[in-house]
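Dear colleague,

As promised, here are the two records you asked about, laid out in our usual form so they can be pasted straight into your sheet.

NAME FIELD: protein one
SEQUENCE, THEN STRUCTURE:
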Amino acid sequence: MKMFHLPPLQNPLSRHGRFILLVFLAITGVMFRPALTQGAGPDPWDAEWIAAPHGPVRDMQVVYFRKAVVLERVPDRLVVHVSADNRFVLRVNGARVGEGPARGDLRHWRYETFELAKFLRPGRNLIAAVVWNYGTLAPLAQMSFRTGFLLSAERAEDAFLNTGATWQAKRELGRGVIVGPGFSEYYAAGPPEEIDGRKVDWHWDDLNDQNSAGWSPAIPLGRAAPREARDAPTPWALVSDALPPMEYSESPVGRIVRVTGLAGTNTTLSLDQPIVIPPRTEAIILIDRGTLTTAYPRLQLKGGRDASVATTYAEALYDHHRQKGNRNEVAGREMLGLRDRLIADGAPRTYEPLWWRTWRYLELHIKTAGEPLTIESLRAYYSAYPFRAQARFESDDPELARIWAVGWRTAQLCAHETYMDTPYWEQLQYVGDTRIQALISYGVAGDDGLARQALEAFHDSLVPEGLTQSRYPSALTQMIPPFSLLWVGMLHDYWEYRDDPDWVRSLLPGTRGVLDWFSARQRADGLLGLITWWPFVDWSPPDFQDGVPPQEIDGGAAALTLQFIEALNYAADLEERFGEKERAAAYRVQAQRAAAGLMRLNWDAQTGLLADTPAKKHFSQQANALAVWLDVIPRPEQELVMRKVLVAKPTEPSTLDGKTVPPMAQATYYFRFYVAQAMVHAGLGDLYVAQLDPWRKMLALGLSTWAETPEPTRSDSHAWSAHPTFDLLTIVAGIAPAEAGFKSVEITPHLGPLRQVSASMPSPRGLIQVSYDRNPQGWNARLELPEGLSGTLRWQGRSVPLHPGVQVLTLER
């Protein structure tokens, strides 16, 4: 047996010695000694990270921390900064104060700030927190070092609250997780939870509870340190969470639509009154909320010791073929989904999972033992980013109002402390989804908080090769190089819609590594060479296998080259304004060379379309739409190309004006955002409303949020499909920034078959309001711009200057 020794530390305070010792202590779980912080430079934090003794360092555990303090009087103000690894809920005197921390990485570990004075009272007070770490079962978006908790008072005179050895800790043995949610589809969110009420410490945050059993002094792990600290003694580089608290408000839980196991109750059972489950009974209660939600379910039980309640959450029910079909149908359908489980201890208790759940349908599967179990109540507490809609869209087509509302609900449920592709399946912030989500946030709420968070997060994700990661924060690195190009576009979008040029300038250096990576792969003929990792563009099988457009052995993919052109043009705009003009000029030369190469090698004169590769065996809506939008295809050809794109079928030829259009890979809900931009660019914006049939079909299927892909689909709520809510404002109502920072507006309506449209949209200078009413000769228009904002109305090739205030115009056909 070999003995292993640490190398001798000649100077225990040297940088090298400290590093070796800290690594050793982190691996073994031994506490970090405060003495290690000596000589580390100025540090405004006076609190220590703490942990529970004898607990696992990185594995699953739930821990309570508490400290009792006696106050002669309640201060007017008492602000604390709080963080944890992974998560915490802070409570003072039994009241819920808040939760966190918002997700980040160890180099940007967030802390939340709370005002505690309103929760305090003269005399004895209890500050308490539940902290949990899901370990290897943590959601993929959750990064981690080890379980820990931190509370630091803002003022020195309040430092008696700071975490350290004076705090107590206790492991909760009644809470755990269930291994594997059992999905065949890709699932990356958190695990189902199990609560054994017979083991839970129900009094952990009770001010009057004097029972000290199981409580021990917390173990200090080392001083907290901000991100800019030199030689930080702990790995969490702290940054303030700039986002507002997530919403936490009661909302409808739904209505009972099916009951089995309880005779004679199918029509009488209601959640408005207690429900008694007799002894030795197995009952199933199915609840339909009507629309999807993201919320904390709160189940209040009484009696029924040893009874089990399994709570299952699903976006939709499934038929015997495991298909969803019409989401409103219940008969003959079964519940499949994430399932929490609890065991009652017989006393009146309230059960709530540590993390919110996503559901339209919620099922309670109850098995009682020797006692009756009473369900006193079932409530839901909605949780999401606190968006407030400022925009509106109304028209004479009532279905457009539903499309607008469903899209906004989708955007809201996919927005928490980060944007999320789907709140049920993954809860990950992907660039492709996030770019569209950010535009919806600007256009509907006039809110850029989450967009700034996302832009910074992807900047933080940059790898040495120069690319952003495809999703971030993420405990597992995934690279989708085209998403790095979309991040450049997302920064350009922010520059256009929000008036914050200095902040845009701060992120510009990150775009250079992205474009340098792609520039190194640009062939001499201008096209991109073979792109590795996962060059995803859109889910369009069979041509786009696994979302990847056709590439030849040496590359030449049109869709990828076009996304490169888009990023080059956007980056050139930003460099000309904020950076290096020489780099901007070089970008434009590269873009022109790529465009020329595509037209020379991929343009197919016989079909009048851009092929996916120089071999000209495949065509796609994605490549042709991008080529039109980016003016790679010359202006005279654009309208005809887009008409072909709109009539093309995926596996068989179609016809346009008697001429054959070859099969084309079809843009999914996601990529139809870019197809719509190309339609407008080609002068076909009036066809937009007619292109909303896929969303109308989803409404007919009973969806209350927009799906990831056409049927059959994994996810019923996917942010990238919500762009019609943005398009109705910017394409149909026609409101868009005319210059960076939304310093002026351009209004170009595309009203198509509609007879009446009314809309409003926020800008950094206030609300822009428009209304259009059809008359026999054209349209009556009323436009109102906020103070300080002017612009231009464009209609049928004519331009009309607009000034702040109200203007009433007649628009002739």
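NAME FIELD: protein two
SEQUENCE, THEN STRUCTURE:
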Amino acid sequence: MVTTNRLITLSLCLNLMLALLFHPLCSAQERVGENWTVVRGDNSPGATYSTFVETPNGRWLAAGPSGQLMFSDNEGIDWDYGVITNDKGRPVFGTINDIVVHDNSLVATLVSFDRARGQTQGETPLPFVGRTQLLTSVDDGDSWTITDFPIPNALFGGAITGFPFPGVYLPKLFVAPNGDLLAYGTTAQSNGASAFFIGGAIFRQNGSSWEQVAFEKGWLQSMDQAQGDRLVASGFATVLESDDGGFWNGYSLVDANLNLNGQPLDFAEKELLNASDIAFVDNEYVIQTQEFRRSRNNPNIIVASNQRSVIFKSPDPFAPSRNWSGTEVPRIYPNWINMGTNIVSVVDAAFSSDTGVGWTQVDASVTPRAYSVGRVDSQGLVAVGSGDEVWTSGDAGQNWAKILDQNPGSNMSIRGRVGNILLATGTSQTSAFASLFHSLDNGTTWIEVGQLSDLVGSTSIGTLAIIDDRIFATVDANDRIVTSMDAGLTWESLSVPTISSQGLKPVSAAEGGRLIVPQATTSSEVFISDDNGQSWTSRPAPLEFGDEVKDGRYVGNGRIIYLVNSFASFDPRLLTSNDNGETWQFEDPFQEIDELDRVANDPETRVIDLRKLRQTDLGTLIITGVQGEVLVSQDRGQSWQVVLFLERVEEAFLDWSIGEVLESDGRLIVIAYRNSPVSSAFKVNFAYISEDDGASYRPVEIPTSESRVAFQSGVVGADGRMVISGNNGAVYISDPLATDRDQVQNFSVREGESLTIEVPRPPISGAISFSYQLLPDSATAGSDFVPTMGQLSWAEGETTPKPITIDTLDDPFNEGPEILRVEFGLADDLIVSFSYEITITDTELMFASPFNVLIVSDGLIRTSENGDSTTFGVVLSRNPSEDVTITLSVDIEGEITFQPASLVFTPGNWNLTQPITVTGLDDDQPDLNKTAQLLFTTASAGPEYDNLAPAIAYVINEDNEPRDTIFSSGFESL
């Protein structure tokens, strides 16, 4: 990848010095739950994209529903992801169907349905009408301007000229050979269940305004360039042509002579033909048609149900004869791309045709899930399957290569915490089977321990009960639970004498370590064990057939609560024991809660699909329901109050759900998600924060890159951070309130000096020992600082801060500020807990330049062994009497190249900057960053620039080879 720095007129003379003084910098954090950061998955969205374009500057960009973007600036090697938002900061509503380059800008069309606003003529439309918005970008898609399409109605151009059809719906764009921008499609209305498309419309941009240039019988769906600069278009029962895109001529297919296998089609058949694609190839016009049918309920309505696919060809379809010859084909080949020599169709596989009739499947593995396929040059194609897979072809679609193929892993479900180890289950990135994962650094990174089928003999495990760091869990067998004493590395199976064929429900831990395991709905037995599951006895419970036992836990004072529903969400009750599991009964505290009456105002019916039961540090019990309900109890479950009911108060129609309830930093946080208005497949996530132990909540949106992510599980890490997980392999973290040790995380020191930091005791009880180590960032160990490691120890009750000293080295290079890190971790190697960042400020000149030769740059001169380039400038500071020649050389061979090799300044151009481009070379050696001296030797017939010492510009070439990794005291040492 080549990056070119902007040339700016910053002249750095001989005596310029950096004079930054040492001072500590404070870096206060917001409280836990306010900000969330992705640490796994989600940063490579697996969403479907609907269009692709190469921008004027060579960026590859795909867009799709809700404004989702993915783009690459190096021809698909690396990809970034983003979203187009409206003026409220929310993703745009609708689907981006097409993007084109017009007047060196990007123009996209965004289509959706909106509520009808009424009209001044004609009958009142259906409740929803089509809406078109135009999105424009002048910076390769980094920012966008959104405007409504200025014409809300299309005017019929036939016998009832002037009749308006509201709901302009223009999903396609086309740039004509004369540079005009065309938008085409139809008018659309909807009753909420079905969409109705009326007529086919073409609009042309005329200066800064738009004008309607065509309105035909059916929805226009395809456009192509024919002979010369002529344009052709097709749609339902319609073909059109135009000389310039401003005036269109054509006819309905019912008026054409269409022959199939030598036999003419009759009027009824022609009336139902949808010409979805048109192309001019091999000097013939080709259209792809599908034969639709009439609605069985209303013959005036045409239903898009394909009865037969036919390809029609004609050498001159706009001659008076209007002759077309048809060939039936076995399937539809959608979304034609005319490559000049052939037609390509890429949706569920890559197909190619020379004539549009005979098609060849060239690659079955190319399977984009939408129409996100586009050209990148005369013969190049890019097909975007999703944010995780991209294919390219360089020969007009005849051969394909997959250039992006990544798997973030599917749903990650965080199950709990054993000491400092977080546990999760999910599908790995390398296997389709469920696995167990560990995180040793509070959710930042995850290690696959092994497949569940190998570890526990099952593909899934139930809710985890953790007693003194020992795990107990049910599995899918009906007569056993499993236990682990090493955080899931090894498991033991424990038999339970069940009589239910439907297995066991979640294990809970009662007073004294007693294990409680209810049976499923066909049995009324609850099993208890007082010896860690080695032996079991049963106790009767009032469970009946149809009762579904959900989450449960010991809540104090000998009381145990299990959530129970009968037939999914009906008849919510509590199965309780007040004597540590000896006797059991049903309690029904929900009958008094009017908010749960949701069935025809029946006072005897309460509906809530109980999901999870949690208890706060202050003893508050919290029940969450599947539909966004949060109930709290302050009396160990005797009475309950609804404090959140998202489906009633927060846009109920968007189908809310509660994923998890967590407690940290003195606050409760409910993780909730709902559907996006665009589609139920897209989710929006929130953290509802309570500062008063669940009495009231305020929402904070959790922005995600992948709109299909819904967070459904979570845990509080060992350092108080919240860690949540969801589908697409996504894991997010929210850091806790900054403690005293976090208040000064960033420091600065001048090179060649020492810095001493007083490290506060971490907030961990007992005697503790922490390791620390200096790690390089942009600074280099051995040349910028002295590599150091050591330990800090505190006795139980000791609070005195411990000092560490960082010694920096003064080098002769002009490198600017550089950074190293001090990382701290528990000496048992389990977790890296916190780190400091040290900035070393440079004492040298930015550039060592001789008098009268100036270096012009906007910063440091850096290259890399990846081939990165930097451009800077050289200029003279005063007028020479004779021409001046500057010859360039480098002191280290094999690190950089430069262009040009020499410069010539004259008395006429002495004050005009001339550019120099330096490029890094790869030496295939892990030799760290190297600083090369670029020498400027001057020669002149005049005395001003003759025999001067060479000017020097220091160029830092960054290494790209992986360095040996050594793990020492729980830290990664490079």
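A couple of things worth noting about protein two: Helices lie at 267-270, 452-455, 646-649. DSSP finds three helices and 81 strands in the chain.

Best,
R.
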